[in-house]
Amino acid sequence: MKALLLVGGFGTRLRPLTYTRPKHLLPIANRPHIEHVFDLLRRHGIHEVVLLTSYLGDEFAPMVAAAKERGMAVDVAHEPEPLGTAGGIRNASHLVTGTFLVFNADVLTAADLGAVVEFHNARRALTTIVLTPVEDPSAYGVVPTSADGRVLDFIEKPPRSEAPTNLINAGIYVMEPEVLERIPADKPYSAERELFPGLVAGGERVFATGTHAYWMDIGTPRKFLQANYDALEGAFPTDAVGAGAGAVLADAVVAAPGARIAASARVSCSCLGRDVVIEDGAAVERSVLFGGAVVGNNATVVESIVGEGAVIGAGVSVVGQTVADGSKIQTTQ
Q: Does the active-site annotation cover 157?
């Protein structure tokens, strides 16, 4: 089975970090997020992948090479202009021959993909959508189903008291190749807002199944940070340390090779990239520091993302901020 990974998004909510890299390459526990997706696929015996690229698509080349070295077969279907989630799938139709998996690749999850495929096959579904529970469904679109899992409707952002379910689209799908014929060629088309509702309205066999496995959309700074905290706490499977990407220190810290922490510095629940420097008296808490970042003497970084090569000046306090690559912060934020 092939997995089509949607990696064409602009990552606007994670700017300025995504001006120079797709969000799928941001680090979770010191490894590019897309590598964790590859790990999930490999654990379920899926070794054929198609990257559906658009924005900054060339930046994936090192990940493609690394995946191939790990025994995965990786193709790329590039969109010079974004075609939307369904349009991107149609753009890769020449690479699809049988039942295939689609994955919104900004999702970090431990979902049982094998169980999802079994569910799909047992119901002879045209499309199966994976659902995940959320505390407040009013911020999402919910997907009510019948007792056997058949999708009944798609309800966008219902009031919390009126939501018929708290299950939302998790961004993971199993599809039959016949679905491709229902997607217009060479034009933007949304799976969530156009393709799936159209299939349900036409009486097609669209099913959904829930997962209670770990699930996180990393598309905002808060959720990106939370995904890193969860990795440090072991909330989802990751071989970040075993792969040599870093070392677990005291207080749930992963530090990549070359990172230097002064003896008088305090670091807790944080991920430090290559060659990060934490100077005397500095404190770093619940933060992610990209490679080459420097935290000066007696500076404080809390619940923040510090971009590659950025410098937090001596005595400066940075709390709840996203600091651009190469920035020099000399006043408290």
A: yes
Neighbouring C-beta atoms of residue 150, cutoff 10 Å:
14
CB 312 within 8 A of CB 328: no
Residue 272, domain CATH: 2.160.10.10
Active-site residue, from 2, 23, 157, 328: 157
- Kindly report, residue by residue over 104-120, the tens digit of the pLDDT: 988 999 999 999 999 99
Cα gap 252→239, rounded to integer Å: 15
Residues 6+ apart with CB under 8 A from 150: 123, 205, 206, 207
Sheet holding 266-268, edge to edge: 266-268, 283-285, 300-302, 317-319
Peptide bond into 82 cis (omega under 30): no
Residue 195 resides in a domain: yes
The pTM of this model reads: 0.91
Question: Residue 97 is encoded by which pair of tokens?
Answer: 């021959």
